Amino acid sequence: MKVAVMGYGTIGSGVVEILNVNKDVVAKRAGEPLEVKKVLDLRDFSGDPVEKLIVHDYMDIVNDDEISLVVEAMGGVEPAYTFVKAMLEAGKHVTTSNKALVADKGAELIRIAREHGVNFMFEASVGGGIPIIRPLLSCLTGDVIEEITGIVNGTTNYMMTKMTTDGSEYEDVLKEAQALGYAEKDPTADVEGYDACRKIAILTSLVCGQQVDYNDIPTEGISHITATDIKYANKMGRAIKLLARSEKVGETYSARVAPYLLPKDHPLYNVNDVFNAIFVHGNMLGDGMFYGSGAGKLPTASAVVGDLVAMAKHVDKNIFLEWKEEKLELANPSQQNFKFFVRTKASAQEVEKVFHKVEFVDAGVSGEVGFVTCEMTQKAYDDKSKELSDVVQMIRFA
Amino acid sequence: MKVAVMGYGTIGSGVVEILNVNKDVVAKRAGEPLEVKKVLDLRDFSGDPVEKLIVHDYMDIVNDDEISLVVEAMGGVEPAYTFVKAMLEAGKHVTTSNKALVADKGAELIRIAREHGVNFMFEASVGGGIPIIRPLLSCLTGDVIEEITGIVNGTTNYMMTKMTTDGSEYEDVLKEAQALGYAEKDPTADVEGYDACRKIAILTSLVCGQQVDYNDIPTEGISHITATDIKYANKMGRAIKLLARSEKVGETYSARVAPYLLPKDHPLYNVNDVFNAIFVHGNMLGDGMFYGSGAGKLPTASAVVGDLVAMAKHVDKNIFLEWKEEKLELANPSQQNFKFFVRTKASAQEVEKVFHKVEFVDAGVSGEVGFVTCEMTQKAYDDKSKELSDVVQMIRFA
User: Which of A21, A225, A240, B117 reaches 20 to 30 Å from A322, CA-CA?
Assistant: First the structure.
């Protein structure tokens, strides 16, 4: 079977590499060899082994009847959307690693694929090499999924781990992460939680079977976390992690991306460095967790190649996948319940006047008071915290 | 679609329960409702809601053309094998939670299923509710799997966790586990590693695509582990866990079940109590881990129902699965390399005379010496340890 790869960047070149290095094992599992016939890129890559496969016009792939499997690894919504749509309409199976495309257009592309008897797969779009999409869609199908909580951004997890182990400040760790290539020059999408937000939108869509708009998900990043917060976290025996969470509330879900204080006995507590993990709670399964390399060239490309093999085995069959275009109204995030850890310049007396029963945390930081509230709604906290002077920080308990 | 359940014990009744409680979500994902029509058991279950569905002769299911999906939850090789074979030959899809059956007859039943255009699935046979079989078969297909290391027996993991946290002796913890229903009255299959051995045989078969005979896998249990060993482990900052391991060696695999000393930074280190987890290393993926409830009625039944949904979606198609009946010759286990932790009544001088460079471990135990060898083959260790008087204990480093 002939494969086309759109985008010869990190992931695209990783896919070509795996199809070469693991050629035999891939052929055995797919039932026949998978061979890259065309690579779409704006660049020419003269001297590279793929040089002779490079095409610059996506219609060269659309019109090539020999090509039945297509990899989209360009990133971004456009022109990826236009290209992918054209491939599906031409009866070609498509796999993508592009979370922006899947979060935005997933439901529509799944419908188009179904209408044309082909498959649209996206295992690599969440959790890199970690199998999570297909386990949710084809293993945990006997369960009502009541919670998904993911550490789904390697950059921020590396940074939070470093701040915890070294006691260093955010800015220093960011520079280090950039020097190591873990963070981009403009780190906004990672550190402000936008990347994690798209991923939890995709996972929530899959478990509810409807379209979840990532714009509806309240999203905070880690750029406001300081070495002092880490001190308090250590004192409480907790770790601060950027979590992307989704919980079932009645007939809908409540989703949020934010830094949380995780207790030691939570399976995600020990997920460190650039690793990702997705914790799942099913009403029958109980707790489960999927852990691994959430990013990087080869782990992510490994998930793409897994999709290629699955599509090769189902080349004549659309695998039904419940993800309707109808939008899911998420639960009101201000009604979510939390315990809140708060730092303030106000006095302990003032804190108790406003919040009544609290637990004070003494991390040896002078000039301020740290405390943990009782469980209350986000709205109740927002109202009360306005009554308190000089709130320095608020981090939710997980 | 009509379902038959063979064996109305813990797992079988769990499957019936999930198909009732999660009826709507299962119907949505399977594409149509799944309804239990017959339940095979020797008992009558008068008064139970399934009473009217009970049949005593498996031929009542074989001859029922309305039934297309069958659950085998009887356990043991016979009569499960005879019944499952008859179901497949009658063109019915079968899912089983029965590791003994899968380890013994998996390759043959897969061939029979293929010959009859149906599927034989067994997600619940390893790791209970944890998705591991299907992720290996349908996600990590772009990888050469170089290592699988599992904590795949909840009973022994509970016991090792208890011994570690409470400092108690093996016999006391076993009694406790039996009282809690975590260990059986005759705990041999769990504590001697036989259960874990069958599971790693299944996982190894899946990654190599050939039949692995569990009789070829050297298997030690945990019944010789003492509170004193735990003291040494704590001193070394390691945890003793019963691991079922399989590693790629050239064109074959080397497998072993034994207690190992795991370092703190290993993803399996924090897998405690009755939880299971399977660590996987792929040549492209890198490290991955699947964690969750490895046993118990509903988690295990959840995996069976996941299989039912998958079979309902592929009712007209055998999903190709590479597991040939041809036997794989495992690598010689005496050529595996380890560091060995050893306790002996011999003197430090004698230890150094025999093993040369070692690291002594002082856990405050009088009358003996504890030490860690350099890395050497199992054979080299066996030879040397014969030269040493009074070896009290040996546990391998992981």
Answer: B117
